[in-house]
Amino acid sequence: MARLWGILRKKNRIWRDAVVEAPGDDAESAQEALNEICYQLDIARPIFLRKHEEEIARFGRTAFTQEHFLEPIAFDKFEIEFLRERGRSTDPRNDFGPGV
Description:
2 helices
């Protein structure tokens, strides 16, 4: 289980946000959780393009602007991001050996 954070930005500030549970941390899971985030934030669901799938896979986050919605929006940008669990990094570049 992963958590997906939805952020509405207006004038480069967080205007509203919501966090929902997602079944995984891939693009397909993000699309499933996107419906719940949009419902909680009371906004229309944006168009999810291949660009967004690639950004989710590569960075764990993506953003939607007016061009991704079919109706006018009252904010500048809608961002979604997977929240990672706290704990030790699994990145081998951060492994400084035993006892460190």
